[in-house]
Amino acid sequence: MAVHNLMEDIVRNCLKELTASQPLLTKVQPKLLDDMMAIALNRLPPKYVATERGEVIAKTQLRAQVESDVYRELSAAMDKVLHSQDKRNS
Q1: How do residues 23-72 score in pLDDT, each as one tens digit?
Q2: Closest Cα partner for 38 from 12, 65, 59, 64?
């Protein structure tokens, strides 16, 4: 297994959950969702693993610990991206 940042998986999963629960996000272009993910990831600390065993252990511990931070950063990223998109469309 190559070195992997688990925060990418966690942010991606949280963004999918938000997209499924918020009708506004279902219409957002995939590129803008990627922008939201990148903004959130840049504001969150990376959590790297290099083995499958390490990934399992870290995912079990990490998700509960960082989920509120991830949702906070995704919300801020959504506001930033959608506000920027609104300005372009005006």
Answers
A1: 888 889 999 999 999 999 999 999 999 999 988 888 888 877 898 999 99
A2: 12
SS3 49: strand
C-alpha–C-alpha distance, residues 86 and 9, integer Å: 28
- DSSP assignment letter at 81: H
Q: What's the token pair of residue 68?
A: 């509120």
User: Distance between CA atoms of 23 and 38, rounded to whole angstroms?
Assistant: 21
Single out the residue of 46, 47, 35 nearest to residue 83, CA to CA.
Answer: 35
Could you tell me which residue, 89 or 79, shows the higher pLDDT?
Answer: 79
Give the start-to-end residue ranges of the domains of the chain: 4-89
Using CB atoms within 10 A of its CB, is residue 81 exposed (0-12), middle (13-18) or buried (19+)?
buried
